[in-house]
Request: fold
Amino acid sequence: MRAASPQRRGNRAWQKVAVSAENMAMVADQLRACGQLAGDGDPIEAFAHFDNGRRLRRIHARYANGWRATLVIRVDGSWSLSQAIKLVSHKPGVPA
Reply:
């Protein structure tokens, strides 16, 4: 007798949608409302992720000054915000 295979869970079925230029200000306002401080102005690129119930669950945003912000919205309405900067270093004397 074979054991039942474990049920796969996770966000594989979430739909990733590129945010249009008209909606970048809305994304920036949403991130600022959650406490995002690092990026200046509106993001230059953003993606929104929706679950099977078409609820917004995650926003990834990238800013011109190198900062990235990710807002994760859980089913119960709570959220978490993470921010990171992409640093690029060059060796002295080596042209970039």
Q: What stands out?
A: The radius of gyration is 18 Å. The helical segments are 24-33. The CA atoms of residues 18 and 47 lie 5 Å apart. The chain has a mean pLDDT of 83.
